[in-house]
Write a structure and sequence with these properties.
The complex is a heterotetramer, with two copies of chain A (93 residues) and two copies of chain B (470 residues).
Chain A: H1 7-12, H2 16-41, H3 44-51, H4 58-84
Helix pairs in contact in A: 2-4, 3-4
Chain B: H1 12-20, H2 34-52, E1 57-58, E2 61-62, E3 64-67, E4 72-75, E5 78-80, H3 85-106, H4 109-114, H5 116-132, H6 135-143, H7 148-174, H8 179-187, H9 193-213, H10 215-221, H11 223-227, E6 238-241, H12 243-246, H13 258-261, H14 271-275, H15 295-307, E7 314-317, H16 319-322, H17 332-353, E8 358-364, E9 371-372, E10 378-388, E11 394-401, E12 407-410, E13 414-417, E14 422-431, E15 440-449, E16 456-464
Antiparallel strand pairs in B: 1-2, 3-4, 4-5, 6-7, 8-10, 9-10, 10-14, 11-13, 11-15, 12-14, 15-16
Classes of the chains: A mainly alpha (93), B alpha+beta (470).
Chain lengths: 93, 470, 93, 470
């Protein structure tokens, strides 16, 4: 461990497992909730027909929907970590 | 969780080192005792429900089936449709609130006995012990360099884990899609791609969480663990070490009198640390990682027995009881939680009991207010939406009331609606303007099943006409 | 400023504006992308009809979709911050 | 951005204090000069495009309109439909890549001259100066306690800002929904609720970002600023202070000879700090906050002129040039970016140029392979999807080729498709089995517009029949 850690370094030093979890896990939870809400309103069969895939099964539709939500939420969680990095010290030397 | 005086104040460096240290594998020692029995009982019961219930049939279909492909949920005799969304939401809120109430009363008893993560970790640990042997044997094996024997043992363990995980994934999917059909597809190698995917996905999640992640799931992933301290108070049941009785700790002969040696009852055998599935030392005070599983209580009671000391050096207690005060079970937050829960539960029961699995919506034609027919009658045009939420196809009869001599014109006298479908029915209503008291009137449409007597509903619509001439 | 800040404290001391932005802004960006992708496939008029709101306009559908995505992504970004908090020091004293 | 030797190494405490300090409002001093003129020119041009272009008509409709309510994009003569999604994606990728190329060449010139955040902040600063006066007057006003005069001035400023923001919001919505109609709805107070919402939303965003947040947007929100350093190299254009020439800095009389005083050319007038919109001191070296706007160059050149020193103490340069080396404009990353850009751009131009605004999909009936008619002909059933992506309704003629004596049976000889719509056409094709070379054959359907000669497309489908008897 370094002696006088800057804040930037500190954040980096969260356990890797926690850093991975903090991006993939909340996004998984929210994607699940989104899937539940979204498909309570829409039937994937109808959506498949609208999108031009009339042979899509319901399970297939739920899966695609869930992963669409998960990719999106995980991406935005990852960006949050990016935007939470302290800005570089005022002077780059 | 108020301050319990710590003997050695931890320097910041040590805390940080603790935070960053690489995770070390925890080898919990097997434990026997009253709480271990209860935990095993809970484990068998819960796993039995999980793996067994989907196979139970009821009235010709799977007793409990959240049938995603068919978009309907079967819960014994009750069938819920997407229109019944509210019931499921209510049920989830009740479940969350029950957990709150339970936590306020009994702390993390949920974590130690009923949480799926704990239950599956226990069964994986059980498999690990059957294959690799006791704690000592496991630690020894892991320290050895790779050998044919080690490889064989490890491969056996992972193979059993994986098969068990796949079976778990299969069962999980069987809660959401008819399990008998799924089984048939499995043995005929005709599983659909999506079903296969989810079996693998959930199987992999089980293998990873119960085989590898284990206590890290509780520490990093469990949202409940992070806020449960907010629900703790001085009267919450928790696992605690009786510091006053135990300290100063130290080894001694069984025959020795601790008082003479200036020792407390703790013989510092570290058995409580060895059995802990999250690898903590309960004697350090209440900790975030403690899941309240009572393994340390069981083992310590056993040790105390052997030493001839009274049991309960580590025990289920409350902070108040530890201080020698009286524990209050009934307290404001318990009353508030219970009251809300009782209200929500009553609401759910009432809603389910009075639920009519039939819906009638009346949509007025939006283009015209009203027509006049050649005979001088006033005509309004509507589209009815009939939702049959029963398990059977229904034939309905439509009747009208509310206005004198109203004439109902539909394509057919009867409305046939298949199970779980929404049927659109265009209708016209004609009334002599003399029978219209005003330009806007209420009419009542009454829908009654001919197939299932008693299944009926009434909906009110608007009938528009000209301003009556006075 | 405190002298020997623990990591937990440090994270708390990011400028408030940055903490707010790190949740609302990435989620806004991702919600915009999601809206773009989603409505390139689905016509809100069709969706409105499926959901039982035949009088929904397209702009209305886009707006509801966008805010659905934004609320979901912002919620998951917020949870990421929550799960990134270092776990409490091992012993609570 | 390699190490430039700092004179005073900043202690960690200072860095942290810097990180946590409460934001202080920056009052950039007005600046005149060549770069200020260029910046103003860019500002006027870009704002002119933003506010003016939506009002321009072309061939009877808004020249550039990303018509969300109608789900089609007009870009002068070109109309894109949701089916043309790929063009827009390609365009966005090209835009991003252009920014990369531009950054490698000219650093953050984009930030200083063209970024909407800079442009709108400039116009808001201009309004602020017109209402509150110069930098000194603004600082003085802000230090005063609230008074009727101060309130009047502040209220005026915010009112103008808000009106301007609302107009911005209106224009923004006008890029996505026909602006002439929107204007008509606005003056007749019949704006739809969603349009109103987005005008207010975007207006509020403008007011907040350009009026209040300003440089904080660049520091905390701009993703580009955070990774642009990865695109910098020693040959990238940047704003830099010539340390060798300027130091040691210090005030002196105009008549004094700096060499005699042992001073460099910097008279330490701090004008470069006063004009900086992000409040940094360029003399501290290259900084994350520098948006390359060259305000400090303009003001320093003015000061150097007054002092009778040569211009360029602060100037656009490269790290290599500062070290006295030669700057390479053509370097590997520039070539790679340019090549990819050129390829993508050619692809886009080619795709748009050869785009046929007509799509034909052939869907076979999935229930039967083929029928046999009473006359012994083999019949296949299809559904055609015809997408008319032109601006006008079209009448199409369908013809068939590829198999001898194929008979085409449709409900009508002509297919009428309204502009931008998908039309489903059920058809049957009958062929004498003698003319079928095998059980699966290719047939070609040819769709040709009668309305717009030259608009045609050909699609290949499968025609199934019995195994030919040999």
């Amino acid at each position: 461990m370094q002696k006088n850690p800057t804040i930037y370094k500190d954040q980096q030093e969260l356990p890797t497992i926690q850093r991975v979890i903090s991006v993939l896990w909340p996004s998984f939870l929210v994607a699940s909730i989104s899937t539940f809400l979204f498909f309570a309103v829409f039937d994937p069969i109808d959506l498949g027909r609208l999108a031009g895939y009339p042979e899509l099964t319901r399970i297939g539709g739920y899966t695609i929907g869930f992963f669409f939500f998960w990719v999106m939420t995980a991406f935005s969680c990852g960006l949050t970590c990016y935007f939470r990095k302290p800005v570089h010290p005022p002077t780059i030397k | 969780m108020s301050a319990t005086a710590g003997k050695t104040p931890t320097p910041d460096q040590q805390v940080e080192a603790e935070l960053y240290k690489k995770r070390q594998k925890i080898y919990p020692r097997e434990v026997h005792g009253i709480f271990a029995k209860m935990r095993n009982l809970a484990m068998v019961a819960l796993l039995g429900i999980f793996y067994g219930l989907p196979w139970l049939n009821w009235d010709g279909h799977q007793a409990i089936l959240f049938d995603l492909p068919a978009r309907k949920f079967h819960i014994f005799g009750l069938t819920l449709w997407p229109q019944d969304f509210i019931y499921l939401s209510l049920l989830l809120i009740i479940a969350a609130l029950s957990l709150f109430l339970f936590t306020a009363l009994a702390g993390r008893l949920w974590c130690g006995y009923a949480c799926p993560q704990t239950v599956w970790t226990e069964i994986f640990l059980w498999i690990e012990r059957k294959v690799e042997g006791s704690r000592q044997q496991q630690m020894k094996l892991d320290k050895q360099p790779m050998s044919a024997r080690k490889f064989r043992i490890k491969a056996t363990k992972h193979l059993i884990w994986l098969l068990f995980s796949l079976w778990t994934g299969f069962t999980f999917v069987g809660w959401f899609t008819p399990i008998h059909e799924l089984w048939h597809e499995l043995i005929t190698f005709s599983l659909g791609p999506w079903e296969t995917f989810w079996i693998l996905f959930y199987g992999f999640a089980t293998y990873g969480n119960a085989g590898w992640m284990r206590e890290q799931v509780c520490i990093y992933m469990c949202p409940y663990a992070r806020f449960q301290s907010a629900m703790f108070d001085h009267d919450t049941l928790l696992v605690a070490y009786d510091e006053k009785r135990g300290e100063p700790r130290g080894p001694r002969k069984k025959s020795a009198d601790p008082r003479e040696l200036g020792l407390g009852d703790c013989i510092d055998c570290t058995m409580c640390v060895q059995v802990c599935p999250t690898g903590i030392d309960i004697r350090d005070g209440l900790q975030y990682q403690c899941i309240g599983c009572a393994a340390c209580i069981d083992i310590c009671d056993e040790v105390m027995d052997k030493m001839g000391y009274p049991k309960g050096l580590v025990r289920y207690t409350t902070e108040r009881a530890l201080k020698g005060e009286h524990t209050h079970v009934v307290r404001p937050r318990i009353i508030v939680y219970s009251a809300i829960l009782l209200f929500l539960f009553s609401a759910l029961v009432y809603a389910v009991a009075t639920r009519v699995p039939l819906e009638l919506d009346i949509l007025r034609d939006r283009n015209t207010l009203y027509n006049e027919t050649d005979e001088g009658l006033i005509e309004n045009v509507y589209t009815l939406k009939v939702v049959n939420m029963t398990d059977k196809p229904q034939t309905f009869k439509l009747s009208i009331s509310g206005l004198k001599d109203a004439e109902l014109i539909a394509q057919s006298d009867e409305i046939k609606a298949p199970s779980g479908e929404v049927v659109s029915v265009p209708i016209r209503i004609r009334i002599d303007p003399e029978n219209l008291p005003s330009s806007g009137n209420d009419i009542e449409l009454h829908l009654e099943s001919l197939t299932q007597p008693g299944l009926e509903t009434t909906e009110t619509g608007r009938f528009l006409g000209p301003m009556p001439e006075l």
